[in-house]
Amino acid sequence: MLAVLLVLPLSTKAAENGFIPTVNIVTTAGDVVALPSEVQQADSRYQLATTRVQWDRINPEIFNDVGEHVVIGKTEVGQKTVKGVIHVFSKAKPVNVAAIGDSITYEYECRKRALQRVSEATEQPTRRKLQCHELRKQRENVARRNVYGSIYSATSENSKYGMNINAKDITFNGTLFIRNNVLNTVVTFDGHNVIKSTTGSNVYVRNMTIKASAYYYGSTEGGGSTVITMGVGNTDKNFIVEPQAKVELYPGSKGTGYGQNAIYGFSKISIENGASFTANVARPMFRTEYTAKNARVEVAPNAVFDVRTTDATEGFSFSYGIDYVIDHAMYLNLESPTKTSFMYAYRNSSISIYGGKISVWNAANATQSRNPVEVFQLSNILSGKNMGTLTTSSAELKNTFGSLANYVRITNQN
Q1: Which of 316, 322, 324, 197 shows the shortest CA–CA distance to 261?
Q2: Fewest CB atoms within 10 Å of the CB: 111, 162, 242, 296?
Q3: Residues forming beta bridges with residue 89, ordered by sequence position
Q4: Distance between CA 324 and CA 350 in Å, rounded?
Q5: Which residues pair with 167 in a beta bridge?
Q6: Residue 36 DSSP symbol
Q7: Residue 222 near residue 253, CB atoms below 8 Å
C-alpha cells in the first residue's frame, strides 16, 4: 500500500523559507514502494511549485519492519533538505482515512480505534498521522499524480494481501485515489466525499460500500477512465449504497470508446431503501465482463435510480449480462437516447420493474404514460434488435409496447 501525502505550511515563517512538507509513504509489510521523484514546495504567497528531489539510498529491509522509518533527501535546485517518513503497517490491520480540520488525514490504526485529533501546528507532529496539504486560503486539494494510487495494494486473489479501508470526508483531485483490488477486501466511504480523477479512476477496488446517509461525488476527465473500477475477475464484487446515502457519478468522455463508465466489473449493485444513485454522461454507465453469471442491479423501495447515457451507441449499459430489479422506486429513470440500442448484452438480460407508474418515451420523444402496473418485466434482452420479451400486468401495455429498441427512456415520471 502506498500514499504520498504533503502538508501545507501553517506559519508565514515556514512559507518565506520555501517550506517543503514531510513526505509520508505508507505501505504494508513486505511491499517495497518508491519515494516520489518530485515534491511540492510552498512560497511566501502559499503557492505551490514542483521541485525534483534526490533521496539517500534506502535499505530495502525496512519494508519488512513494521513501524516508522525516516529517510532524507535533497532538492536538485537549492539543495534543500527533504524529510520522508515510510510507515510500514501490518497487513492484518484495516485502514481509516478521514478528513480532520483543514487537511485530509490518513490514519492507519487497529479495528475500532477512534480517530485522533490532528495538531494544527506543523512543528508538533501527531504520532501515526499523515496529512496532505491544501491551499490555505482557497482550501483546494492538491492533485495526487501517483498512477498506482495514493493508497495502494497490489492486485491479488489472496485476501491476506489486502486491507479494509474506511474513508470519511475526503476531497481528492488527482490521478487515482485508492487501488485495493484484492479478494474479499472492502473500501467504505462515510460522511461527505468529493473524488475527482484526471487520467485514472477514483478507485480500483474489489468491493465498495457507501455508508448510510453518506454522500459520494465521483468524476473522471475521460479518455478511457471509469469512475469505479472493480476488475475483470469473476469473483463476487459488490457496490452497495446503504439507506439514505447519495451517490453521483460522472465519467468523462473522449471519443466513442465504451470503456468510460460509471462502474465497471461489478457482480452486484445494490441501491438500498431511500438511497439515491445518479450516473450521467456520454458513454455506457454500467459495464461488466467476465462475470460467472449475470450481474445484478437491485433498487430498493423509495430509492432514486437515475441512469442515462447521452451518446453511447451501446446504450446505458454494456455487458456480458445484467438483470435489473427495481422494486417500488421513488424515482426511476433509464435513458438511452441514441436510437441505436437501449442496452447491449452478450447474454440474455432483463429489466424488472415492480409497482408504480410506467412512462415510456419513443425516439420522437413522445410519451406513452401508463396507469400503475404491478409488474413490468422485459426478459431475453440481447444485443442488436432483440430487445426483450415483455411480461406485464397491463394488457394494454403488452399489446402496444413492441420492442425496447423503439424507446429511448423508461421512467416512473411523466
Answers
A1: 316
A2: 111
A3: 28
A4: 6
A5: 97, 189
A6: P
A7: yes
Is 15:42 a contact under the CB 8 Å cutoff? yes
| Position 228 confidence tier, pLDDT thresholds 50, 70, 90 | very high
CA–CA separation, 278 and 258 (whole Å): 19
Give CA 149 to chain center in angstroms.
Answer: 12
The residue type of 83 is K
**Distinct helix (H) and strand (E) counts, the chain:** 2, 36
With 0-12 / 13-18 / 19 or more C-beta atoms within 10 angstroms meaning exposed / middle / buried, residue 249 is: buried
pLDDT in tens, 298-319: 999 999 999 998 888 888 888 8
The more confidently predicted of residues 330 and 224 is: 330
Report the C-alpha gap between 240 and 269 in whole angstroms: 6
Residue 242 amino acid letter? E
CB 374 within 8 A of CB 391: no
Distances (CA, A) of 410 to 86, 266, 341: 52, 23, 13
* C-alpha neighbours within 13 Å on the C-beta side of residue 299: 26
Among candidate residues 102, 6, 110, 16, the one with its CA nearest the CA of residue 53: 6
User: pLDDT tens for residues 57-106?
Assistant: 989 899 888 888 999 999 988 888 998 888 787 766 666 665 433 223 33
Contact partners, residue 240, CB within 8 Å, separation at least 6: 207, 208, 209, 210, 269, 270, 272
pLDDT at 229 over 80: yes
pTM: 0.70
3-state SS, one letter per residue, for 199-246: CCCCEEECCEEECCCCEEEEECCCCCCCCEECCCCCCCCEEEECCCCE
- CA 274 centroid distance within chain: 21
Pairing of strands 304-309, 286-288: unpaired
Task: Give residue 67's Cα distance to chain centre.
Answer: 29
Is residue 167's pLDDT more than 70? yes
In the block, residue with C-alpha cell 493508497: 151
CA–centroid distance for 186 within its chain = 12
Residue with cell 478507485: 203
Three-state secondary structure call for residue 401: helix
**Contact (CB, 8 A) for 66 and 91:** no
